[in-house]
Amino acid sequence: MDHFTYQQDSLFAEGCSVAELAKTHGTPLYIYSRATLERHWNAFNNAVANHPHLICYAVKANSNLAVLNVLARLGSGFDIVSGGELARVIAAGGDPKKVVFSGVGKTIAEMEQALNIGIYCFNVESSAELELLNDVAGKLGKVAPISLRVNPDVDAGTHPYISTGLKENKFGIAMDEAEQVFARAQALPHLAIKGVDCHIGSQLTEMQPFLDAMDRMLALIDRLAVNGIEIKHFDVGGGLGVPYDDETPPHPDVYAAALLERLGDRPLKLIFEPGRAIAANAGIFVTEVLSLKENSDKRFAIVDGAMNDLIRPSLYSAWQNIIPVQLTSAPSYEYDVVGPVCETGDFLGKNRQLNVQAGDLLAVRSSGAYGFVMASNYNSRPRVAEVMVDQDLHQVIREREKLEQLWQGEHLLP
Ligand code: LLP
């Protein structure tokens, strides 16, 4: 559930009129709802309330400082994949002691940064990374807390670009090598084994792949215990899907209850890395219709937002609902909603039944995750502004880029 609803045929974000926000701040515009972000985070946190746990919001989903700060105030931890994300967490007032560091390609500089700040855990993805981290920690006179990301080889049944738990994917350590790599980790002096982690993919709408992964990971944890390697936490990753259309992903309550049942009486702290489930439906992307165009086959609504602002439809053929900001009863037609970028793949939605005129505003729903963070300046388009609403108040949380910022740092030849 979110807080984007119609009041007298006009779309509101909590207590703020979307049309008013667009008028004040221009379009295209991302609008986030604080109450929705908090509701989703609390849904996760409450689902595991009676078991030791840490919710580490996946920063990559939406890394705006205000978003991170809202979650930090709830007590959230953070799952990061770069030194940049770590710096953002700190700048937003997040607690580094609740940070897990994922990712297949951590640099020495990033390892040093995280060791000096003192994060909760490194999620190590390969033997090579294990050796490197041990060296880096040794040189700093520190011991790095680690988990090994093990690839459980389950098919998440999601889009191939966002499926990560299969043998053929680049992520994690193969299950049949895991015990050997743990034994090596135990022998290295500058590492302390804390946990095991996995992440099998994103936008999962069924429980079964999570349960299959959990069974395989718990069996590994049990085998490790027999061999004297004690695991303190199990990080189940992120990946819980959201309703973009008519999908019915499990509620965090159902998801957590099923995992806790599998866990049994093992005294493991559970770590969750949800990104999309917290942020996606806490945001909309608002765009204005520039003009309508028709040929013998198709009608196009040409809007001011484009693939550089919101790439999910172009990149993954992702479907996100497109709704009018003002409802009217005029007849509707089927449109492709396309942007001004010079690419055939530049669309926000295809074959959408809409009743629109030039000058109307449309809202692309579920845009709070993997929206602004994946934006680029392609076609020299400044990145758009972001606004967060909090009941009937709102705040610009990122200003619209100015044209001069487009070439900031560029230099002419002498
Ligand atoms: N943990 C790890 C290690 C991850 O790789 C990811 C996402 C997450 C947590 C968070 O997953 P979530 O709960 O958000 O599903 N850009 C794509 C999604 C890429 C996800 C990458 N990894 C999209 O727009 O659909």
* Cα-to-Cα separation, first versus last residue: 57 Å
Second CATH tier, the architecture of the largest domain: Alpha-Beta Barrel
Whole-number radius of gyration?
Answer: 23 Å
CATH superfamily of the largest domain: Alanine racemase
Helix content: 25-40%
Shape: globular
Structural class: alpha/beta
CATH topology-level name of the largest domain? TIM Barrel
Query: What kind of sheet is the major sheet?
Result: 9 strands, mixed
Strand content: 25-35%
CATH class group of the largest domain:
Alpha Beta
Helical segment tally?
A: 12
Overall structural domain count: 2
Domain Orn/DAP/Arg decarboxylase 2 C-terminal: 33-368
EC number: 4.1.1.20
Binding site for substrate: 276, 312, 316, 343, 370
Keywords: Amino-acid biosynthesis, Decarboxylase, Lyase, Lysine biosynthesis, Pyridoxal phosphate
